[in-house]
Known about the structure:
The chain starts with a helix and ends in a 15-residue tail after the last helix. The chain has six helices and ten strands. It has a single domain (2-178), classed as VC0467-like, CATH 3.40.1740.10. Helix content is 22%, strand content 32%. It is of the alpha+beta class. It has helices spanning 2-8, 58-64, 115-122, 143-149, 160-164, 171-178; strands spanning 16-20, 33-40, 43-48, 52-57, 77-80, 84-93, 103-106, 109-112, 130-139, 153-157.
Amino acid sequence: MEEHMENNYLASLKGQFLMAMPGLADPNFALTVTCVCEHTPEGAVGIIINQVHSFLSAKDIFDELKIKYKPETASIPIYLGGPVHMGEIFILHGPPFGWEGCVMITSTLALSNTRDILEAIAMGGGPESLIIALGCAGWGPYQLESEIRQNSWLTSPVSEDIIFDISVDVRWKEAVRKMGIDPDLLSDTAGNA
């Protein structure tokens, strides 16, 4: 049984994008792009990069945590990182990487969630490229592998320009396009051909 489970584990998807197929039924992930931050046989964690909170901004986070901030940082958008740990803050970011809770995803991308990085961001410092997210996406052991086999997700290497430089509303289409696939031709029916 243990050996069989080992065979169900795909190579780590850490540092990959998951693009939800149009037929994915879970409304939390409809047409999302998720950056996989960690993936082991125990499960996976990611941050959705194309859902912005409709009314929260960094000012709300800074005020809640009593962090002093410069006026120009107040309007940094807050992303909906996923339906798990929705009360926790996660920062997906480029360099620098010396923060207390910094976990490297690739050689140029990391995930942090400690106060030191938030304080730096609030005062106009910290990483130049970043996403502040509330919550994350999470999968239990072999759950993500099973969903991929059911054609719920497309996978491709993370592309930082899609995370940090492309408009939020076209990130899904651009991530799919970067794979060489026309997003308008994808079926909204999951299943195996």
